[in-house]
Amino acid sequence: MAVVRPVLLRSLGRSIRGLGGERSPVLAGHKLLYRCNLECHMCPFWRREDDPLLTLDEEVRMMDALVRAGVSFLGFEGGEPLLRPELPSILEEAHARFHTSVVTNGWLLAQRFREFRDDVEYLFVSLDGLRATHDRLRGIPRSFDRAVAGIRAVDGQVPLAISHTVTKDNLGEAGALVDLAEELGIRITVQVAYDYSTADAMSPDRARLRTTLESLLERKNEGAPLLESPEYFLALLGSWYGDRPWVCRPWMTINVDPSGRIVLPCYVLQEYSGRLPIWDVDVRALWNSFDWDRYGTCNRCALACYLEPSLFSWANPGMVRERVLEAAVEYLRVRRRGRTRGSLPVVGSRPPGGPPRTPAPVA
Ligand SMILES: C[S@@+](CC[C@H](N)C(=O)[O-])C[C@H]1O[C@@H](n2cnc3c(N)ncnc32)[C@H](O)[C@@H]1O
Ligand code: SF4
Ligand code: SF4
Predict the structure, then answer these.
(1) pLDDT digits (tens, 9 = 90+) for 10-46
(2) Can you name the residues that pair with 226 across neighbouring β-strands?
(3) How is the chain split among helix, strand and coil, in percent rounded to 5?
(4) Is CATH 3.30.1330.60 correct for 6-339?
(5) How far is 81 from 170, CA to CA, in rounded Å?
(6) Which of 47, 48, 191 to mutate to test the pocket of ligand 1 (most atoms within 8 A of CB)?
(7) What is the pTM of this model?
(8) How many Å apart are CA 281 and CA 318, to the nearest integer?
(9) Which residue's CA is the nearest one to ligand 3's atom 5?
(10) Mutation pick for ligand 2 pocket among 37, 43, 146 (CB with most ligand atoms within 8 Å)
């Protein structure tokens, strides 16, 4: 409990301060680089040139700035984070300060997991469909087989979930991906593709998407291993097909780009990216002077890292149970099992009693 208890107390403390009017981020996402070894149609990031990346010392300065800002969870993403040779050292520093997660396309997972297994607390592996669909959407042959081989190699050593992005080309396969997660004994998180202006327009047809969202909500209520809360699906259905917008609180999640700059209001809109690196910014002052209110009813994306914290309420006992208490218990259980196994990869194993739960992923 040594790791979990202070985080719960800090998060609770922040929520209470939030009620008093002060804003501070709880989750952080950091793109370690834009470069990638895949070329997904819907993704803008692999198309960008990287400026010089942060050194390890600068990554640590960034983390210390996030600690000062009040962040408890730091998720690493990209580009492809496993392309960074220094990833193990970065994660070690991060784990000394935060709960950590990584989202990866899985290509290098089996090869590199041993290097950082002790410092990642939750791992997301992206799968955008079954083999043919995934390889087509990801632009590179064998990417499905490499990702699934990665999942099998690390399964049982770390809480693990498939990260699935629904696009116009894989709409019919969300259910099959939930089946695959069940078969593998892991969890799944489902996002809806957002149309970035610098990527292919891949967002799904809204009418067909509605059926998918409704059926995912049904699967969730039947006990399928979906990480999203029922409230997540209800918020999308209420907003996109009704007149009940959710209130987006993008200030709960802070995003830092590969050069160490804060991206505001969220990494989807990226309307503002400071010139200074985060360690030269007074984040708390920025957070309490930025005009967040005009994004409250934006409702344009469905990214769980923004939507789930926006929906979270300490007054909702179901959410507190699933997101906080069960997440803590599952985390400790899977890590303990991983440790007793030593560092050898365990192929095809499952945590007993079903897959782990966690707070919303940063992806
Ligand atoms: C940008 S990738 C970075 C990490 C890693 N390269 C991977 O693919 O998992 C993180 C997640 O963003 C998702 N993603 C990519 N393009 C997206 C889009 N246009 N809208 C929503 N999610 C998207 C990917 O499917 C992936 O699950
Ligand atoms: S979604 Fe991930 S794997 Fe695909 S191109 Fe973007 S960064 Fe690379
Ligand atoms: S709904 Fe999405 S795009 Fe809009 S402000 Fe919130 S996080 Fe950003």
Answers:
(1) 454 444 344 456 899 999 999 999 999 999 999 999 9
(2) 188
(3) 45, 10, 45
(4) no
(5) 25
(6) 191
(7) 0.87
(8) 37
(9) 295
(10) 43
